Amino acid sequence: MERNVAYIALFAALIAVLGLVPQITLMSGVPITAQSLGVMLCGAVLGARKGALAVLLFLVLVFLGLPLLSGGRGGIGVLAGPTAGFVVGFPVAAFVTGLVVEKWRSAPVVLAAFVGAVLGGVVVLYGFGLVGMALKLGKTLPETAMLLTPFVAGDLLKTAIAALITKGLSQVRPGVLLSRS
Amino acid sequence: MLTLTSPVETRLHRLPAGAKLAALALATVAITPVAGVAPALGVTAAVAGLYLAQGWRFAGHGVRMLRPLWPFLLILALWHGWADEIARGAVIALKLVAVVALANLVTMTTRLDAMIAVLERLARPFARLGLSPRVLAVSIALVIRFTPVLLARAERLAEAWRARSPRRPNWRLVVPLALGALDDAEQVAEALRARGGL
User: Fold this and answer.
1) Under DSSP, is residue A81 helix (H, G, I), strand (E, B) or coil?
2) CA distance B158 to B10
3) What is the pLDDT of residues A24-41, one digit of tens each?
4) How many Cα atoms within 13 Å fall on the side-chain side of residue A88?
5) Do B112 and A65 touch (CB under 8 A)?
6) How confident is the model at residue A154 (pLDDT cuts 50, 70, 90)?
7) Domains within chain A, CATH numbers bracketed
C-alpha cells in the first residue's frame, strides 16, 4: 500500500515537472511540452492501473488550482476550455499504454512501450481530444481533425522517445518496470 | 509552490468553496444552450462585470488567466470570417470565454486548503471502495512536496549536462530523472511504513 501510494505520487510529480521544464528541446531545437511524455511513461513504467492513478492524482492537483499543466495552466477552467478532451483522455492514455506493456510480455520492452504509447498517447488521447475540441469549438469531427493534424507528428516523436526512455530505465536497472514485474 | 489563487483579496474569497463550485456547475449548464449574439454577449459582459466588481487589479489577473485561449479564438475568427458566418463564430467564442472565465473565477478566489477540504468531502463515499481520505491527503501532500524537489533535480541534471556537452540538454535527461523519482518512491514508502503506515 505505502509503496503504491509513493510510486503514484512520485510519478504524478514527474508529470508536473515534465510540463514545467521547457528546456527539453527536440533535435530541431523546437521546445515541446513533455507533459504527454510523462503520461506515457506513467503507463509504461508503472503499468495500467497505477499509471492511470498517477495521472488522475496529477489532474486532481491541477483542478485544485495548481498551475501544473504545461504553460502554467491549472484550475477547473481547464475542464471548460477547448483542450478539456485531452485532459480527460490523459488517464485513459496512460492506462492503455500500461496495458500493452503489461500484456505483451513476449515483445521487447522498447517495442511494447512504443506500440503502447502510440495506441494510448496518440490514438486514444487524440480520440478524446478530438471530441472535446469539436464540442467546444462547434466544429464537426473531420474539421477538428484537420486542425489537430499538425500536432500528430510531434506526438509520434514523443512516443518514440517514451519507448527509448522506458528501455533505458529497464537496462540501467532491470526489474524497475512495475508494468512487467 | 504558487497556486492560481489571486493574492488580491476579494469578497468572493470569503464565500464557501462548495457553494462556489455548485454555482459554477449550474452556470456552466445554463450557458451551454445560449444561442444568438446578443444573449452570448450579455453572458460574457455579466462575467466581465463580476471580475470588474472585484477591482481592476483582480480583473487584470483574470485576463492573464485567459491567455491560453487566444490560439483558439484566432482559429474561430479565421474560420468563421472565411466561411462568412461571423455571428456563429462570435457566439461560440463568447460562450467559450465566459465559461472558462467563470471557472477561473472560482479557482482565483478559492484557497488550496478550501479546495482540498471540498475534495475530501466529495471523496468520502469512496472510502468504502478502498480510497481512504488519509491516503488521498497523503498523496496530495507528497505531490506538492516532491514537485519542487524533482524540478530542482532536473535543473541540476541539466546543469551537469551543459558543463560536459556543447549540445543542449535533451530528452535523455528524463532517464536519470525518472530513476531518481523511482528511488525517492522506495524511500518514501519505507518512511511511511516506519511511521506506522497508511
Assistant:
1) coil
2) 41
3) 444 444 445 788 899 999
4) 15
5) yes
6) confident
7) 2-180 (1.10.1760.20)
CB B45 within 8 A of CB B97: no
Put simply, the answer to whether A13 touches B143 (Cβ < 8 Å) is yes
pLDDT 10s digits, B154-179: 999 999 999 999 988 888 899 999 99
The answer to whether A12 contacts B174, with C-beta atoms less than 8 Å apart, is: no
pLDDT, mean of residues B87-91: 91
Kindly write down the DSSP assignment for every residue of B123-139, as one continuous string: HGGGGGGT--HHHHHHH
Number of A to B CB contacts under 8 A, please give it.
Answer: 196
Check if the beta carbon of residue A35 is closer than 8 Å to that of residue A154.
no
Whether B21 sits inside 8 A of A71 (CB atoms) is: no
**A62-84 confidence digits (pLDDT tens):** 999 999 988 788 899 999 999 99
- For every residue of B36-91, DSSP letters joined together read SHHHHHHHHHHHHHHHHTT-HHHHHHHHHHTGGGHHHHHHHHHHHHHTT-HHHHHH
Please tell me the distance in Å from B86's CA to the nearest CA on chain A.
13
Q: Domain extents for chain B? A: 11-122, 132-194
Give per-residue pLDDT as tens, A84-122: 999 999 999 999 999 999 999 999 999 999 999 999 999
Contact call for B4 and A82, based on CB within 8 A: no
Q: Which of A10, A16, A138 sits opposite B188 (nearest CB)?
A: A10
What's the pLDDT at B83?
Answer: 78
For an interface test with A, the pick among B73, B76, B102, B143 (most A C-beta atoms closer than 10 Å) comes out as B143
* Count of CA atoms in the C-beta half-sphere (13 A) of A162: 36
- Residue A9 has its nearest CB partner, among B79, B102, B143, at B143
Rounded to an integer, what distance in angstroms lies between the CA atom of residue B113 and that of residue B72? 32
A31 forms bridges with which residues in the sheet? A25
B-contacting residues of A 78-137, CB under 8 Å? Answer: 78-82, 136-137
